[in-house]
Amino acid sequence: MAGNDFQGGMDPELAALLGTAGTTDSSLLPDFNDIFGEKKDGDGVDNAGSPGSDVDLGGSGFPQVTRRFEEKGHSFFNDPNYYKNVLSNEGDIAQRVHTILQKYLTTKDPKDRSVFRQQFIAPYWEYLLNVARKASGNMMPCKKFLLRFGLLHPNFLKTETREFFSKIVVENELDQPILYMDEWLNGVGTAKMRPSTTDEVKIAKGNSQSKLQQLLEKAQGKLDGSRVIVKQKDRERNEIERFLRDRIHVIYERSPLRELPDVSDNLHERQKAAVFEIQNLLKDLLKNDSDLVISIKDYINAEADVQTLREKIEQEGGSVTVDIGALDAEFDTIRQMAKMTCGRQGNHFPVLTSEYFHCGPNDVATRENVISLLARIESIDAEAFCRVYKNRLNRITPYVLLIPTYGDTGFCWEPFDRYNRATSRGRIIVPMYPRNLYYAVHTAVADLRWQVAKEKASFYWMEEGLTGHYYQWFQAMKLKGDIKEFFIRDYILWMTKESEGIQKLEKDVRGTFWRYMPFTREVKEKLKTRNLIYQELYQRDLNRQMSDGY
Predict the structure, then answer these.
(1) E strand or H helix at 414, and its extent?
(2) How many CB atoms lie within 10 A of CB 39?
């Protein structure tokens, strides 16, 4: 991404448009003829409340998680018709899934079991696609939990494990963009979220509508950015005025002369210093006012652009609606992501069972657990979720998809929306049942870190910034392999070891990370007392600040 991708200025296309320059007993499975009736979905959970894509650039951190689990779990997993309902109304593919699953559960031969296990995976994903197509409407609870947890049959889990899953908080009470798979598909299906851009997405309207929608998203991004800048300038003005009042009060401090009680004393040194500070503050106030005038003008223009585009979309028949092809493409993307979390040699079995589930309560990637870990990461890596817009650092929490796989690795597949690089959320994925959740979340954040820095540097990613300095070290060391994998490994060491004063990185890597992925002030203050190496890095920060080069 070139540096000006984060800057203002009207998009040429927009300007042209606007006219301006567990258990495996086969008895668990009911008879097939008793399963596939004409029972309709809709008597279950309403998914209409999936989070939208509005980004609060003024956010300061993640909310504190005060409730990780419900005190009393729901009873959906105790429903004897759960399996019957979860397969109902899904067509012939559901019958095939049921048939292969029966063979898998009943065979005694380990080789045959392995064959049926492999045969089960592809039809299951095809069946799951049928379920996913209904994610934008009302869903039966069993199908919601199938998408969310991979829970095909409750009796595949031990009693205590079923109870654990029943106590996981269902609703997004903390209002964070950390979403389960059913919520994610709901957001895409109802056009509250853009589909992932790894595949071309079909749009229900023609090319004109699609183009207008893309331009609207770009304009909305500039409007969001302009709003943030206006608020920042207003805060700066309030701060300058507060300092002015304080300094003026210092000047008004008077004491009478001993020789002439009716005459006030001269200005003392503190008051003289306050006079000079007032002069500088008045200059800052004038500059702030000038910047604020420009920022307000930019905001008004951006707001007008957004309104014009909305009117044009309405004139052409309303908002763009994403058709079923978009949801299919998104599901196909998610399926590929699921494979990547597991890796080539990992466990790709897509159903939650006690046979493969070995996580403790804090090891499952529930929304609350992941929020806590992201907050912990941000308490160490001060700018983990920040992005520069118009030379200002804005905090933008990424979308996090929690996908029910047995993978161990999280990753980022979009550092930002290609139509709105300024204020859109990145997208990362975290497997729900890893061996080490802390590691899985760290790999996802590390990948996000790398991709944002690389896209920001654009053609100069091997020369400038975080990626440039790391690449030059990589080349100097004559290392072979995927440079991003090395970076992710070093990022984890940075967060888990170096943040505690345990030196595990090469000197040049440590210096690059300290400069371009700074620890929070609290961590830096702690480290500077631990070792001369960190004390030297801390002093470099002070030198840069004094030279205005930081």
Answers:
(1) strand 411-414
(2) 14
Instruction: Return the DSSP state at 122.
Output: H
Tokens of 312: 């044009």
User: Counting Cβ atoms within 10 Å, is residue 262 exposed (0-12), middle (13-18) or buried (19+)?
Assistant: exposed
- The pTM assigned to this predicted structure is 0.79
d(CA 503, CA 428): 29
Task: Please state, as a whole number, how many other Cβ atoms lie within 10 Å of the Cβ of residue 432.
Answer: 27
d(CA 142, CA 506): 51
Distance CA 413, CA 162 (A): 32
Whole-angstrom CA distances from 10 to 18, 299, 305, 472, 531 are 10, 12, 9, 36, 50
Residue among 430, 370, 363, 435 nearest 403 (CA)? 430
Q: Which residue's entry shows tokens 């470099």?
A: 540
| Rounded-to-integer distance, Cα 274 and Cα 252, Å | 11
What is the per-residue pLDDT across 536-548, written as a single tens digit (0 to 9) for each?
Answer: 999 998 888 777 6
Mean pLDDT within 425-449: 96
Q: How far apart are CA 1 and CA 398, in angstroms?
A: 18
Say which residues have a Cβ less than 8 Å from residue 92's Cβ, sequence separation at least 6.
none
C-alpha–C-alpha distance, residues 330 and 336, integer Å: 10
**Dist CA 206 CA 215 (whole Å):** 15
SS3 246: helix
The mean pLDDT value of the chain amounts to: 84
What is the pLDDT confidence band of residue 30, given thresholds at 50, 70 and 90?
low
Is the CB of residue 156 less than 8 Å from the CB of residue 352?
A: yes
- For the chain, how far is it from start to end, CA to CA, in angstroms? 22
Asked whether the predicted pLDDT for residue 17 surpasses 80, the reply is no
DSSP character at residue 263: S
Query: Could you please report the per-residue DSSP string of 25-42?
Result: -GGGSPPGGGT---PPS-
Q: Is the dihedral of CA 186, 190, 191, 192 positive or negative?
A: negative
- Other C-beta atoms closer than 10 Å to the C-beta of 328 total 17
